Amino acid sequence: MRVAFFSTKKYDQDFFEQTNESFGHELRFFETSLNKHTASLAEGFEAVCVFVNDALDAKTISKLADFDIKLIALRCAGFNNVDLEAAAQNKIKVVRVPSYSPQAVAEHAVALILTLNRKTHKAYNRVRENNFSLEKLTGFNIYGKSVGVIGTGIIGACFAKIMLGFGCEVFAFDVKPNDELKDRGVHYVELEQLLQEADIISLHCPLNEQTHHLMDRNAFEQMKSGAMLINTGRGALIDTTAVVEALKQEKLGYLGIDVYEQESGLFFNDRSETINNDDDFLRLMSFPNVLITGHQGFFTKEALEQIAEVSLKNLSDFEAGNELENEVKA
Ligand code: NAI
User: Fold this and answer.
1) What global pTM score does this model have?
2) What are the residue boundaries of the D-isomer specific 2-hydroxyacid dehydrogenase NAD-binding domain, all occurrences included (predicted)?
């Protein structure tokens, strides 16, 4: 198939070109993101391959339909950036990569917890400056703490198992509980109880109408004072204004985020010589107990190989008229 890739970096091109040797699709890589202004680049192609911050709203999709695009292939798990109703109306199918190394994201959530707790990012800088003082580096034992997992799908389940391995008591909230986790000793509770009991809360549910700003002022009020909140899901699971307030009031003890509500246009690019006008983001970065990474939870060699493999197989299945096992429907 002739496929236009958007929001691509060199690593995307490297992994896709290598994997495509056994698929034989015609791939064209654009650095620009896909939106209603750039949709015309898709002219002459049969499919577009997009990532987390491409804006597949109704206007973009209608333009893609004008250029006879038949398939939107997401090279990610989340699909909150696609207007599925508009895609269906325009007879464009949508496929995704539902699971690619879920351990990559779960392990990144653990990295955020350990860094925030034991302050290894600060210790690294101190030691490089010959400062061996331990002042203000005190952490806490993860062992024995209560961990709350919101969303125990593929990634949340991996994360829960790692935390069980640390010797934590694991609470979970999900609209569809996972029996295997229950057998391993995870306690499914209502959201309120999870918020009240957990020392560490990690978000692994998708972003949708029900979960938008799930962590709002009310949620922060219910949490234990000094709790740690980790978000490797999607930025808008957290109400940024409310989290800034909870940090200012010293209600929230730690915040580790790999995703940010307004990350589109900010993340995945070198902006070191650009003025950042996002005051909320700058406020977040001013707190000593906040750690931000730029949506790199998925970024392991194993995950990139799987993303390329599954995305290209999705394209081949569509081309061959096979059943689309990774189709996303409205
Ligand atoms: P999944 O679909 O396997 O699991 C999501 C779980 O959330 C399911 O068990 C579902 O029942 C639950 N859920 C749905 N609505 C809920 C609600 N209102 N309240 C509580 N639970 C709810 O998805 P997976 O693969 O585990 O991924 C989770 C999310 O992680 C994705 O939607 C995506 O946003 C994010 N992600 C982030 C990455 C990163 O690089 N930081 C990479 C990959 C995914």
Assistant:
1) 0.92
2) 110-297
